[in-house]
Amino acid sequence: MDAQGRGRDEGIDPADQWVLNPDTGDYELRLTPSTGRSSASTGTTDARTPGPRRRSKPETPSPGDRASVPGQRGGRRGAGGGRGDRDEARKPGSRAAVPATGRRKAKPQKSRKKKALVWTGGVLALLMVGVGTTGYFVYQHFNGNITAVSTDGAGTGGFSKDRAINVLVIGTDKRTGAGNEGYGDSGSVGHADTNILFHVSKDRTNATALSIPRDLITDIPECPTKLENGEEKDIPGTSGGRFNTSLGQSERTPSCTMRTVTELTGITPDHFMVADFNAVKSLTTAVGGVDVCLAKDIDDKDSHLKLSKGEHTIQGEQALSFLRTRHSVGFGSDLSRIEIQQQFLGSLMRKLKSNDTLTSPTKMWSLAEAATKALTVDDKIGDINQLRKLGMELASVDPKNITFTTVPVLDNPDDKATVILDKSKAPQVFSMMREDVSFTAVEKKEKAAAKAEEAAKLKGEMADAADVRVDVFNGGAPAGSAQNALDWLQNEEGVLKSTNQANAPEDVKKTQLVYAPNQADQARRLADMMGLSASALKPTTTDAGAMDPMVLTLGPDFTEAGSPLSAPQKAPEDIQRVEADKAVCAK
Question: Angle at which helices 316-324 and 277-286 pack, to 10 degrees?
Answer without folding.
Answer: 130
